[in-house]
Amino acid sequence: MKLAVISFSGNVGKSTITRHLLAPRLPGARVIAVESINADEGQAQSLRGSQFGELQEYLQSVDDVVVDIGASNVEELMRLMHRYRDSHEEFDCFIVPTVPPPKQQQDTIATLVDLHNVGVAPERLQVVFNMVDDREPLERTFHSLLDFLAQQPIASANTRCRVGMNEVYARIRGTGADLAEIARDNTDFKRLIARAGDRQEKMALGQRLATRRLARGVVPELDACFAALNLGRFAAGAVGAAELTS
Ligand SMILES: Nc1ncnc2c1ncn2[C@@H]1O[C@H](COP(=O)(O)OP(=O)(O)OP(=O)(O)O)[C@@H](O)[C@H]1O
Ligand SMILES: [Mg+2]
Asked: Ligand 2 centroid vs 20 CA: distance in angstroms?
């Protein structure tokens, strides 16, 4: 399965969704970062938007990949997708993260319209609601985007495809840590804290315990979001996959 995570907006969670929602649930998938201005975390290979030809060739050589397209490259990539007609077909699905601020929702609409204009069908163009605040109904927070899509159904927006605002992403940023692995860890932190020699050590262990607690809350949420994306329909051999991707 080949996924592109893309948005005209910076800081909407493209890299977070790539690394913590998608890649861990697609066994064997590689992560490619089409470089953003900001250096990306982890050991992902990097390509520039101008190397689009190369990216297309690379995509022929792999089965499962998530391409995280930094905001600064999106305009160029869109231009190239127009020039290399039908090149969007290299991707089974385009994942477009969006966040609550109105400006970002307008950018999301612009991203969806551009992808629609290069020929991406609605079932291959999927919004993920990110940084969702559970205290507000999602329908209200994202009403401008949802109203637009109700009028012009050029993309799929399932309100179950949501990732809540959570400080765990900041805690593990740049560490390359896997949330599911952190959640599974059974270290008895309470015991270690009781035995720790100094305050600093106790605090470091306390931080790991807090991160694990957050991870244990977030992993089921990410599982539910991933299930709602229903990407299994694009897996090799899935009924309808050939029609959707050819
Ligand atoms: N659901 C979330 N809850 C809390 N923080 C989040 C969430 N998603 C992303 N973040 C944080 O927001 C910041 C931006 O996220 P990220 O780097 O994934 O965005 P991006 O779209 O890849 O940005 P860029 O355009 O710079 O590549 C990061 O600090 C990240 O930890
Ligand atoms: Mg990024």
From this structure: 12
